[in-house]
């Protein structure tokens, strides 16, 4: 009995380290939910539905499952990446489009030098450095700037 419990715990630890595994492209929404569980967010984007699987306030990954209008899985990817952040269009993207592409932020702050909200996203810059992306909005919710820097809560940890 003790060996079974140890094996079960070991299996759970390994599956958590492997990241989320979505069903194949073309699967139904029901199959996605059965495989991944309930999403942490659900957002419309260009006629599709984005299911957010955020990995917590200190997490550096958010997975998005994109469902087409027919409710079938079109893609599944980790979206907190340098490449994805580079695709944000300043003075065009809005809070809603940022939510649909990156999911909820780790934190929302207000700086005296910025008129609106600043959303913070933790991520691994270039898959190596513990970083924090600051998405700065104006009062009407339009992205004005993207500012990248080290994650102050993880400074020095990448040098192990």
Layout of secondary structure:
Layout: H1 2-17, H2 29-36, E1 41-45, E2 48-54, E3 62-67, E4 73-78, H3 82-86, H4 95-102, E5 107-109, E6 118-125, E7 129-137, E8 143-150
Antiparallel strand pairs: 1-2, 2-3, 3-4, 5-6, 6-7, 7-8
Name its key features.
alpha+beta, 8 strands, disordered N terminus, 160 residues, 4-stranded antiparallel β-sheet, single chain
Strand content: 25-35%
**Whole-number count of domains:** 1
Helix content: 10-25%
- Mean pLDDT over the residues: 87
- The computed structural class is alpha+beta
Radius of gyration: 18 Å
**Whole-Å distance between the termini?**
38 Å
Major β-sheet profile: 4 strands, antiparallel
Which consecutive residue ranges, at least 5 long each, have pLDDT under 50? 3-17
* Anisotropy-based shape: globular
- Which sequence of SSEs, written as H and E, runs from N to C? HHEEEEHHEEEE
What's the total number of strands?
8
Q: Figure out the total of helices.
A: 4
Spatial arrangement of strands, main beta sheet? 1-2-3-4
Description:
With 160 residues, this protein is of the alpha+beta class. It has one domain (21-154). It has 4 helices and 8 strands. It has helices at residues 2-17, 29-36, 82-86, 95-102; strands spanning 41-45, 48-54, 62-67, 73-78, 107-109, 118-125, 129-137, 143-150. Strands 1-2-3-4 form a 4-stranded antiparallel β-sheet, with helices on both faces. A 4-stranded antiparallel β-sheet has the order 5-6-7-8, with no helix packed on it. It starts with a helix and ends in a 10-residue tail after the last strand. 21% of the residues are buried. Residues 3-17 have low confidence and may be disordered.
